Amino acid sequence: MRRFDYARTSRAGEAVDLVAGEPTGAFVAGGTDLLNLMKDGAEAPDLVVDINDLPLSDVEVVGEAARERLRIGALARLADVAAHPRVSRELPVLTEALLATASPQVRNMATVGGNLMQRTRCWYFRDPDFACNKRAPGSGCPAQEGQNRWHAILGGSDHCIAVHPSDLAVALRALDATVHTLGPGGRRAIAIGDFHREPGAAPERETALRHGELITAVEVPLPRRGTRSGYLKVRDRATFEFAVVSAAAVLRMDGRTVRDIALAFGGIATRPWRSAAAEDALRGRRLTDDTVAAAGRALVAGARPRTHNAFKVELVQRALHEVLGALGDDR
Amino acid sequence: MSEEEQNTPAAAGPARRSVLKAGGATAAVAVAAGPAAAGGAGGPTALPRAVADITLRVNGAEHPLSVEARVTLLDALRERLGLTGAKKGCDRGECGACTVLVDGRRVKSCTTLAVMQEGREVTTVEGLARGDELHPVQEAFVRRDAFQCGFCTPGQIVSAVACVQEGHGGSRDEIREWMSGNLCRCGCYPNIVDAVRDAAEAEEARR
Ligand SMILES: Cc1cc2nc3c(=O)[nH]c(=O)nc-3n(C[C@H](O)[C@H](O)[C@H](O)COP(=O)(O)OP(=O)(O)OC[C@H]3O[C@@H](n4cnc5c(N)ncnc54)[C@H](O)[C@@H]3O)c2cc1C
Ligand code: SF4
Ligand code: FES
Ligand code: FES
């Protein structure tokens, strides 16, 4: 790890000013991704600003009765969000995604804000001995023709096909969350769908955040009664591993027909992937093998698999079938 | 981190003050950097610096320490305080050999900085026993022969202490899931699960 300056503050505005004032400045929350990136040499900040003293750890319900929202502070630890009674009762998709994330120790350290900002696990990106457009813009993308089993089949470009690794972000996309920030220009709210970017020709730009902009909270509308939700994560081993593919579903039925549905996917795309086409294929219809298969085909219609990841095209359709099978049963 | 870097006495480096480029940021720091900030990382505001004087509270004892900001909690414990119970397996958060408790919660000490622990209470495997009396989890590991080479064991034991306290020792499957952050190259998992289950049962009986 290269030498850097360290600062700690309990004032959000000051943390923002410090990082904004240093071109390579970075916030540190849990440190579980930043430290790995620094040890690998994928990032080398000159200034690290510790935000753990900021009062941003609370998980609370806000808003009037019919439109209640869960407000999750950016510094809330993944373990605490997963265990929050309102979350486990009303937002199973969120608890399931969080409990399938990393290990108990990492979940005690990792924060919600840091999880949304974590970098890709693309091995070329994490190893400075390789070219990588995301780490060194313009240097090339060895994953296109190289080892790309872990890479994206959707949302990629000739410049980058790295998968966004977060489980939490996939659940938040299915829940239509909003990310609240404080930046050098003041406060703003960003819809989760606008937060992460596809790589296009600039894979080094991953989110809508400007340099020095701090995530302060994430808000999730609490679902109406009768809403079911769940998260399915397919891994190379039973636990403590990133997703090969994952599927988040939020479902409201009207008798036997689908009244409303939200579907988001991980492991297959360059950003947490929401599929309106798959949702349209199911809304207003019954959940049968045929309708779910049609939704699966709609989901992967634009897929562009590479040498080692073509299996994900089939696997993610099966994951969709599985997650809906578990939710759609009349229980 | 290279060997050489780890062994560099941190205090020997010059205390480099950051040159803040933006006027706004300088002002913000200058205003906030009153007497409280000058003390240490625990004040309301700590000035940017590469070497910090901190106090690490470990196993109930206070250790004043001058450390480079880049030193991990694990390296500070092992190289500076001589507490070599926590092990460095992967140094990437993946194996759990470095597990310690911070404010009672299990964490991986390789993926957090020593300077971030000012004001917190760290417990390592060395802090579990009361004199010659082993912690019940340590007893259970001995009784169940839950190790071979022993490299992962301090991390397993600290993690198991937390696992039982959290109430995640209810069944063998639950233990497997909630101990998944600790890998054992020797494959002693069946005996580790037995040991954690014993400790959890003893804890349930006590409650
Ligand atoms: C062994 C291991 C296994 C893992 N497995 C999984 C997994 O299965 N699923 C998964 O989703 N993740 C996984 N992760 C990733 C882990 O969830 C992230 O590292 C963690 O959530 C990052 O949070 P943090 O608070 O530690 O962030 P830090 O490491 O402190 O910061 C990460 C980045 O976020 C920025 N940042 C932090 N907070 C803010 C904020 N409030 N505003 C703006 N920027 C901010 C930092 O500047 C930095 O760039 C794993 C990590 C490890 C080490
Ligand atoms: S896929 Fe993206 S992150 Fe990976 S090597 Fe290519 S440009 Fe870099
Ligand atoms: S050494 Fe910290 S988890 Fe492996
Ligand atoms: S006892 Fe050897 S690694 Fe676990």
TrEMBL record, chain A:
It comes from the Bacteria. It comes from Streptomyces radicis. PROSITE patterns: FAD_PCMH. PANTHER family: OXIDOREDUCTASE, XANTHINE DEHYDROGENASE SUBUNIT C-RELATED. GO terms for molecular function: FAD binding; oxidoreductase activity. Signal peptide: none annotated. This is Xanthine dehydrogenase family protein subunit M. Keywords: Oxidoreductase. SUPFAM superfamilies: CO dehydrogenase flavoprotein C-terminal domain-like, FAD-binding/transporter-associated domain-like. Residues 1-225 form the FAD-binding PCMH-type domain. Pfam families: CO_deh_flav_C, FAD_binding_5. The lineage of its organism: Bacteria, Bacillati, Actinomycetota, Actinomycetes, Kitasatosporales. Gene3D superfamilies: 3.30.465.10, CO dehydrogenase flavoprotein, C-terminal domain (3.30.390.50), Uridine Diphospho-n-acetylenolpyruvylglucosamine Reductase, domain 2 (3.30.43.10).
From TrEMBL, chain B:
Keywords: 2Fe-2S, Iron, Iron-sulfur, Metal-binding, Oxidoreductase. The keyword Cell inner membrane does not apply. InterPro entries: 2Fe-2S-bd (IPR002888), 2Fe-2S-bd_dom_sf (IPR036884), 2Fe-2S_ferredoxin-like_sf (IPR036010), 2Fe-2S_ferredoxin-type (IPR001041), 2Fe2S_fd_BS (IPR006058), Aldehyde_Oxdr_Iron-Sulfur (IPR052914), Beta-grasp_dom_sf (IPR012675), TAT_signal (IPR006311). Gene3D superfamilies: 3.10.20.30, [2Fe-2S]-binding domain (1.10.150.120). It comes from the Bacteria. Residues 52-128 form the 2Fe-2S ferredoxin-type domain. Pathway: Alkaloid degradation; nicotine degradation. PROSITE patterns: 2FE2S_FER_1, 2FE2S_FER_2, TAT. It holds the Pfam family Fer2_2. One of its GO terms (molecular function) is metal ion binding. The keyword Metal-binding applies. Transmembrane segments: none annotated. This is (2Fe-2S)-binding protein. It comes from Streptomyces radicis.
